[in-house]
Design goal:
By secondary structure, the protein is an alpha+beta fold. It has 3 domains: 104 residues, no CATH class; 139 residues, Jelly Rolls, CATH 2.60.120; 73 residues, Phage tail protein beta-alpha-beta fold. α1 packs across α3. The longest helix has 18 residues. The radius of gyration is 23 Å and the shape is globular.
Amino acid sequence: MTGSEHTRQEMADLWVARMDGGAMSAQEEAQLQTWLESDARNHGLLLKTHATWLSIDAGLASHDVAEEAVPSEHWAVIRPLWHRRRVLVGAMAAGVAGVVARFTLFDAGQSYATRLGEVRRVPLSDGSVMTMNSNTNLAVRLEEHTRRVDLHQGEAWFEVAKDAQRPFVVTSGQVKARAVGTAFSVRRRDAGVEVLVTEGVVEAWSGSGPQRIRLGAGERLLMTDNARIHYGSDQKGDVERALAWRSGMIRLSGTTLADAADEFNRYNKRQLLVTDPEVAGEQMAGQFRFNDPEGFAIAVRNSFNLRVDMSNPAFIKIERAEKTAEI
């Protein structure tokens, strides 16, 4: 390890220790952000060091996490308020000099939120990772016997670290989704809660009903608060299309213009308006950047010979060409 690499590792050790010690001050958080931005490799190194310390608690010498595991554009500073129980083990962890303390880390509770158009990737102290969609608000609480997420609004995809003794439960309204080690998303809709599974098995139920549904990879359901269920299996890649937002995309396949407009409006201040029922029912296919409603509107105009009015900076109006004369 070179001198500069040794210094970077020492700084990563220091920041993990500070985060473990409790809430950091605003000045410390600003200093951490400055250090992260000073070298793109620091993002991955902090996560790797954090994972190594967690693995010591599990009796492992090291935990191999690639520095590229978290793209820098989606990196979120880890700010959970951790409590600790420390037992000295007088050992050396690979790549970490000196005496290392053994940690059992629990998250005392932390809220997270994203702005309109923001997608945020957040590593949790149990090794799980959640990716939050636009305009999402949730709270995380990692306890000794359970891991809980309360999704107040929006959508998040969870890559759950395996821990058979601590199930991972996401609650939104009356609906709950439970997993141990898997990957799935939960979205709060007006009509209820949608659960999509990309890996493993998830159990979903409503607090107002006794029925529990087990979902495997590629399956999805929409469950209302009063336990009404709409179930579907993934025959045409619908689950992956629905989660294209993780890479900043919207993928359409036979989607009505009304539904497509609603999807774009989740991410952009400039809203798409499709008021004509006949136009709203037209079906669209294709892949678009979710922050490019203008590009989508132009594609719609060219595909269906519709009129697109972009004169107002607050919205884009899509309508039949014969309704008014072209400007």
